[in-house]
Amino acid sequence: MTGLAAPSSTPDASDAVYAHDIPAERPWSRVLKQGQTLRIIDSEGQQAVDALLYCAEDPAERYSSQDTLRVQGSAYVELGTRLISNKGRVMAHLTADSCGRHDTSAGCCSCESNAVRFGEATKYQHACRENFILELSKHGLTKRDIVANLNFFMNVPIDPSGAFTVVDGISAPGNYVDVTADMDVLFVISNCPQVNNPCNGFNPTPIRVMIWDPKKT
Amino acid sequence: MTMAQTKQEISEANRRRYEELRAAGQELTPKGLPDATPLDGVPISPDAVVGREQVPAGWYATVRLRRGEALRIVDDSGRSSVALIGWREEDTSERVNCADTVKVQWSAAVSKGRVLLSDMGRVFLSLIEDTSGAHDLLVGGSTPASTRAAFGATTRNTQENFLAAAAKIGLGLRDIPPCVTFFAPVSLDASGRFLWMSGRKRPGDFVDLRAEMNLVLVLSNCAHPLDPARPAATDPITLIRYRASPPGSDDPCRTTSPEIVRAFEFTDRLFA
Question: How confident is the model at residue A1 (pLDDT cuts 50, 70, 90)?
Fold first, then answer.
C-alpha cells in the first residue's frame, strides 16, 4: 500500500461520540466530519454492508469504484485503501480492518437484478437498492445518484480468467472496519437483506456503527 | 414454499440454488459461448449501414441506437481503447451497469455471446460479434489525474469527455456510471493486482453491439489508464451504425444462461 501509518491503538468505546445498532435489512446514514472515524462492526459475522459516500458540500461528487481501483492498482478494498471520488479526490480511507477483504465491483442487490439472477419470485424481496433509494431521499438524492458501491465484509474473488463469484463471507462475529473521513462525507449504508447468495450466510443480521472524533494530539 | 419450511430449510434451499446457478454459470455457460469473430469475418452489407464516422484520438462521439440497430466499433490501429457509457433513451435513470453485468454473468470478462445489462434487470447491449474478447469493466477510463500521472500533464481524457457529452443532452456528473472499455486487455493476478496484456491487441479488432432497447451511447477514444504506451496512441477509431438482422429464437446472445433468458424476457416486455 501507500505508506499509510498503521492503525492507531483501538479507540475506547466510551470515547465514541455516536453508536447505533442497524437492524438486519435496514438502511442508515449520517454525515461524518473530516477527521472523524466510522467503525462498522459485523456484530454476528458474515454480514455484507453496502455503502455509498457523497461529498457533504456537493453530493454530485461521490464515491467512485473505478477511480478507487485505478488509483490503487488492484481489485480489492483493504486496510489503507483510499476511497476516491468521481473528481479524483480522497474522500476517506480504511484505517483499521480486522476482516481483510471487501468488495467494490459487485454492486448492490436490487429487486430487478434478483429477478434476473434467482427467478421472478425474488423480485418481491427487500433489496439494498430499495434501502438506498429510501435513505437517499432524506438527503434530496434519488436512484440517479446510486453508483457502484462498497461492499464491506463481502468476499468476491475475481479469477485471472474473469470468473467472478460471491462466496461465503469471511468475517467473524465482531470483525470491524474503520473508515476515516478525509472530507465531510454523507455516509450511507444498506445492511444487506440478500437471502439468495452467501454474502450474508443466507441469514441477514444486525450490524453496529460507532463514530469517534479525531484524536487530540 | 410451504409454511412448514423452517428458516433453516429455506436457507439450505437457497444455498443449493445458488450453487447450481454458479456451477452452470461458470462451468457450462462458458463452454457454450461462440468462438471469437475472425478479424476478416462478418462484413456489414452496405444496404444495412445507417451511418459511419471516425472519432479522433482524445475525442468522443454520442450515438443514438434504436432497439435492433447495432454499432460496430473498430480499433483500426490496434493501439486504441474505447470507453462506453449509455442511458435508456426514454428514462435516463436507467443506464449500463458494470456491476450487474459481471455479477449476473458470473464473469468480469465479456466476449462474443455476452451482454451488457442495465441497472433495471434488462439487457442494454449484446456483443453479437467480437474479435477481441479483451475488454475492461473494472478499472474504468482515464481522468485528469490519471493523464497527469501518466504523461506529466493533463491531456484530453475519458472522464471529461463523458461530462461534455452528458451535458449536451441535459445530463451531468450525477449521470455518469462506471464505464466499459473495449480493446482494453486488463487482467489481474492472484493477489488482485491489475495487469495489461498488450499481446491481446491487434489492428482491426472490432466489436458489434446490438441495442436491446432505445439507447443514447457515449464513446470515448482515449488511452486506457493502464495502457503503458508513451506517448499515447494518436489514432482514430471507426464507428459504423447499422441495422442488425433480427435475432432468431436461437440467437447466441439471448440463450446463454437461464439468467440471460430472463433478462431478455424482462427487456422484451418494454416493447410488448
Answer: very low
Q: Read off the pTM.
A: 0.95
The domain of A134 spans 25-212
Q: Determine the structural domain holding residue B264 and report its residue range.
A: 33-269
pLDDT confidence of residue B156: 98
Chain A residues whose beta carbon lies within 8 Å of the beta carbon of residue B189: 160
Q: Is residue B88 part of a domain?
A: yes
Which of A104, A117, A139 is the best substitution to test chain B (most B C-beta atoms within 10 A)? A117
| Structural domains counted in chain A | 1
Nearest in space to A25 (alpha carbons), one of A210, A212, A199, A156: A199
Residues 35-74 of chain B with CB under 8 A from chain A are none
B20 falls within a domain = no
How many domains does one find in chain B? 1
Inform me whether the C-beta atom of residue B109 falls under 8 Å from chain A C-beta atoms. Answer: yes
Q: What is the pLDDT of residues B98-127, one digit of tens each?
A: 999 999 999 999 999 999 999 999 999 999
Residue A81 located in a structural domain: yes
The answer to the question of residue A18 being in a domain is no
Task: Report yes or no on A195 lying in a domain.
Answer: yes
Nearest-by-CA chain A residue for B187? A160
Q: What is the pLDDT of residues B183-213, one digit of tens each?
A: 999 999 999 999 999 999 999 999 999 999 9
Inter-chain touch A113–B103, beta carbons under 8 Å: yes
Distance from CA of A144 to the nearest CA of B (A): 5
Residue B196 burial (10 A CB sphere; 0-12, 13-18, 19+): buried
**Around A193, how many Cα atoms within 13 Å sit in the side-chain half-sphere?**
19
> Does the residue B71 lie in any domain?
yes
| B144/A88 CB distance under 8 A | yes
pLDDT digits (tens, 9 = 90+) for B24-40: 999 889 989 999 999 99
**Is B168 among the domain residues?**
yes
Find the CB nearest A164 among B106, B139, B173. Answer: B106
Residue A5 lies in a domain: no
